[in-house]
Amino acid sequence: MSYSNLSIWACLPRTQRGQPIVLGTDPKGKKLLYVHANSVIIRDIENPSIAEVYTEHSTQVNVAQYAPSGFYICSGDQHGKVRIWDTINPEHILKAEYQPLGGPIRDICWSPDSQRICVVGEGRGKFAHVFMMDTGASVKGDLSGHTKAINSVSWKPTRPFRIATGSEDSKAAFFEGPPFVFKCTKGDHGKFVQSVRFSPNGERFATGGFDGKIFVYNGSSSDLDKELGSPAHKGGIYAVSWSPDSKRLLSASGDKTCKVWDVESGDLVADFPMGSDLEDQQMSCLWAGNYLLSISLSGFINYLDLDNPSKPKKIIKGHNKPITRVGLSPDKSTLYTTGVDGTVTVWDVATGDNDRIAGKGHGNHVSGLVVKGDTIFTAGIDDSVKYIDPVEKTYTGKSISLGSQPKMIAAVDDGIIAVTTQEICVLKDDKKVGSFPISWDGLCVSAAGGGNDEVAIGGADNLVHIYALSGNTLTEKKTLEHLGAVTDVEYSPDGRYLVACDANRKVVVYSLPTYEKFNKIEWGFHNARINCVAWSPDSLMVASGSLDTMIIIWSMTQPNKHIIIKNSHPQSQVTGLLWLNNETLISVGHDGLVKTWSVTF
After folding, report:
1. Superkingdom of the source (predicted)?
2. Is 89 within the bounds of a domain?
3. Measured between alpha carbons, how far is 585 from 258 in angstroms, rounded to an integer?
């Protein structure tokens, strides 16, 4: 019995309007580094379907940066803690943990020799701190000079060493050292200074602010060199990033554009219009090797094209909010995932490439997903079921209104069954043809299919309700009692069993047609509410995913044995499971990740 993680399809950066995102890259410019909730994501830039995730912070992570050596990453969180961990081992072994500030850390920079770290953010009267990477000992000096929280920091990569910072007091500050001593502040910006970055050759540093202005200063003396543009952007600037040759500068703005500047001449080299919607605001940018990247408010990662600024080379999509449901196309080549923000993402199973379903969807939490033939059905908390065209990858505009909030939908031979908090709905021919009020909250539904007219519905009343479906009419046949709310049900592919899981941490398999407990056992090794169950195609294994972050594989042929995948989605509950084949399992969770597992019993 064994398992292994085959792939991780990463979530997008977690975005918030008005809050810049800090991106990082390794010294070779091959990896993209960003944060999402409690996780740090390391993503291959050339092939973004290759990713690693670090999840050891106990609270929201705000920033992570590679050491110039490439051997370590330092990440800082909302509580002022930093963790320094290695990048070589898959386990990302912890080197050290310190708490240099008493409040959120907003930016991090390393000294060129990878021995010292400077962190900035909010603190109890202290907004910046420099310390030794190995010991945590404070580097002597004075990093005062700002009166409000510091948003950005950069360390001059060549001698003599300098540190530049940008703050909410609308000033940039300049420090000489080590030990670092305050030299001066720069009051050229009229609003928050959001991004400060030294050029790779150390000759200049640039600042970008919410006033839409970019200023370039001498890297050794801090004398003002020039302003780029007049102003550079019509909206606030969230980030600036230098080209590897230190000759050009990339900027990202809330005016929904990115721009590239020739620093020597001050000329605009390229203007990238990213769209007209609110979600097209540009929250960050990074020049990594030959790649120019930006992050939209939607979380999308844009690959900018200097040769064709009008259109990105590529846009990486996905989820930056919790995933709720997962479904698979009949030919098993395409995966569909839905989110609490109303988004639906389509994935190529072979490559991990993805796209976002277009058109007007639910706008909020998607609670149901069914892939049926040439149509995909989704249910949302806008009390409707909507249709998606999988070929065009867009909502069709068709919608069926329900009487109350749907919790799950399932396919029957000639339609859809929707279970809501107040009724069970039979949907056929683009309309609701049957409605059956219930006195308990419906939570989940599964239809036997294959000529069997039975439908199983799990409720918050701790019962599995078994119905017979005849035409458009449901008739209740029996109930199966659990000790907690029934959270998911699924009939086996061979039609011989029904599996149900509940909030009391139990997985129960029932044998059809009598619905007696299989082998008179209940499986119960989870530590919290079970959210989902899934049958393998050969009906010999059941997978269950839980609030406890675990996935457990149960065997029908060896009922007393099981495989536990601990921390399958660390610090995140598992919300959906499905089998690609009898050896491969796909899982999704509140962390926005899609994971593929190899399972051998």
Report:
1. Eukaryota
2. yes
3. 40
